[in-house]
Specification:
- Strands 1, 2, 3, 4, 5, 6, 7, 8 and 9 form a nine-stranded mixed sheet that branches.
- It contains eleven helices and nine strands.
- The chain has a domain of about 190 residues.
- The longest helix has about 30 residues.
- Helix 1 runs antiparallel to helix 11 and helix 5 packs parallel to helix 8.
- InterPro entries: VAS1/VOA1_TM.
Length: about 300
């Protein structure tokens, strides 16, 4: 019985270590903020939802709890109208990057934190299951049509060229400067009560980082005097797959890594992750050795008493 209990304990401990170290799902953060909106009755001006939710549920929460359906759907009464609804879809930020000092882009995290805390209304979703089958921009369009079944009240929808959407009627812009020019032109032609939906997808290019794109676009909207609400969400699945393929092709070309332009060196984050994984594997090995020793000791049957030798 003792051996069976130790064996079951060993199995549970080993499974918990493996699940904690290797089988944890990848989650991404999402931030919703606005300097011009106010929270409704019974809602907090600044709230954090710690539940792990799907990307589809996130889009639904943006339209309901974030109030986007109030000004993006024409059939609903608009109490707090905004001129522009900005959506930033990143490609690299993970949930662990928000709280860890080993994050991939500290400047991006600081920028989002400053925008989030300085707004009148803000919602944070730290744990969003990264979409794998459908991209975030497609889920956003689907959520818009579902939230506004009768008539979409968005007067103008603009996506960047890096966003993969199949709707051919949507206008697409090529770079950050074209977005600025578009916002400036819409300021003169936009009618009162109309709301524009502007979606910018990061493409991982070196020309503009995610932090620069967010800062410049938000500054452009603020300087124009337009009221806005903004959503940032990370969708790293497709971009990460592309980077993995690019790195694999670069490493496969012997002697041509420098010409490909992809660095294959292990940086500080890479070293930290490799050391962490190595420590977990070594810990599992030592744990199994310890449990095996305990099982062997429990299996030793020592006599409880010895017979007294008889005198001859």
């Amino acid at each position: 019985m003792m051996k069976m209990r130790i064996g079951v304990l060993a199995l549970l401990v080993a499974l918990s270590v493996v699940e904690f170290g290797l089988a944890s799902p990848n989650t991404v953060p999402a931030f919703l903020w606005s300097p011009h909106l106010q929270a409704g009755n019974g809602e907090l001006d600044e709230a954090v939802n710690y539940q792990v939710m799907s990307a589809k549920d996130l889009v639904g929460s943006v339209f309901t709890h974030g109030g986007w359906s109030n000004f993006l759907c024409s059939e609903k009464k608009v109490e707090q109208p905004v001129d522009v609804a900005l959506v930033f879809i990143g490609r690299e930020l993970l949930s662990s990057d928000v709280s860890s000092k080993w994050n991939s882009d500290p400047s991006l995290v600081n920028t989002l934190n400053n925008l989030f805390t300085a707004s009148n209304f803000s919602l944070a979703f730290p744990y969003i299951a990264a979409p794998e089958e459908e991209r975030m921009e497609s889920l956003l369009l689907s959520g818009l049509k579902q939230a506004c079944p009768h008539n979409v009240g968005v007067s103008n929808i603009v996506f960047s060229d890096s966003c993969l959407v199949e709707d051919g009627t949507i206008q697409k812009l090529s770079d950050l400067q074209s977005f600025k020019d578009h916002l400036l032109a819409r300021r003169e032609t936009r009618k009162e009560g109309e709301t524009d939906l502007v979606v910018l997808c990061s493409e991982g290019s070196q020309s503009h980082s995610e932090r620069e794109s967010i800062s410049e676009l938000v500054s452009s909207v603020e300087q124009s005097g337009s009221k806005y609400t903004a959503l940032y969400v990370s969708d790293p699945y497709w971009y990460t797959s592309y980077k993995t393929l690019q790195r694999f092709l670069a490493e496969s070309a012997t002697g041509n890594s420098s010409s490909v332009g992809v660095s294959t060196t292990c940086d500080e984050l890479c070293k930290f992750k490799s050391s962490l994984l190595e420590g977990i594997l070594v810990g599992i090995v030592f744990l199994l050795i310890l449990i095996s020793g305990l099982c062997c000791m429990a299996g030793i049957d020592t006599p409880t008493r010895f017979e007294t030798p008889q005198d001859s």
